[in-house]
Amino acid sequence: MILSGREIQKRIESADITCTPFDPDLINPNSIDLTLGESLLRYRDDVIDPRVEPEVTEITIPPDGLVLDAMSFSLGASREIVGSTEFVPMVHAKSSTARAGLFVHVTADLIDIGSVGTVTFQLFATLPLRVFPGMRIGQMTFWKPQGEIELYSGKYQGSKGPRKSEIYRDRYWETWEGLPS
């Protein structure tokens, strides 16, 4: 079951859903828009090795915007702190943003129940595009789970601002045979 926009607003007002700051103008028929924060991360490594913590550069987006180059990848974050212990949030791109050539959070759209923090957006520009702090860049829907709930307590809990990949902390490669650790 997906929540309607009016139900999302009711659940924010009753604290079943966290959305801070909350702007009722961001409510849609069955989602709430998320806005872009004031900084981006860009990876500095030529090759990302999932066994090693990646190096990043943080870039502040000026008020007059920042141009994302075509075929470039950045990490941004929502201004809003969002999440729920009652509902499963899902992040989606805004169709208007996608039509302008920016892929937002195409993968990893499912947010674990109990996760509360800013949303890190994976931004892939297919065309040169200017982004601005506060622009509507994504949207979040909320779904009612069925069954016993186990709340998220993982490595991205309480995120503030864009977060680089922490896949290196998983150490799953140590079980692969024949690969150096």
UniProtKB/TrEMBL annotation:
Gene Ontology terms, MF aspect: dCTP deaminase activity
Q: List the InterPro entries hit by this protein, alphabetically.
A: dCTP_deaminase, dUTPase-like_sf, dUTPase_trimeric
Under Pfam families, the record lists: DCD
Which SUPFAM superfamilies does this chain map to?
dUTPase-like
**Signal peptide bounds:** none
Q: Which UniProt keywords apply?
A: Hydrolase, Nucleotide metabolism
Might you give the EC number(s) for this enzyme?
Answer: 3.5.4.13
Domain of life of the native organism: Bacteria
Question: Is this entry keyworded Amino-acid biosynthesis?
Answer: no
NCBIfam families associated with the record: dCTP_deam (TIGR02274)
Listed name of the protein: dCTP deaminase
